[in-house]
Amino acid sequence: MLPPHVMSVEQAGEQYRTQLFAQCAQGIHDPDTKYGVCGIITAVVCFPIGLICLFTDTEQRCHRCGVRLDK
Ligand SMILES: [Zn+2]
Prior knowledge:
Distance between the termini: 49 Å
Keywords: Membrane, Transmembrane, Transmembrane helix
Pfam families: BRI3
Bound molecules: zinc ion
Strand order of the largest sheet: 1-2-3
Oligomer: single chain
Helix content: 40-55%
Radius of gyration: 19 Å
Mean pLDDT: 90
């Protein structure tokens, strides 16, 4: 049997996570820009022209649920 305060912390954490994912469910995501490996390599090899590839080879993903966000 766990002491009551441990239970409340766990419940608070669970509630916090549920609230964050509830935002995702409503379409309010936490965007996180990821650069593709190809883009990074091209940017380094073909600097500075390769930077164009770097910025084309990006995708936005939600930091919380990992869903891909299309603009
Ligand atoms: Zn999300």
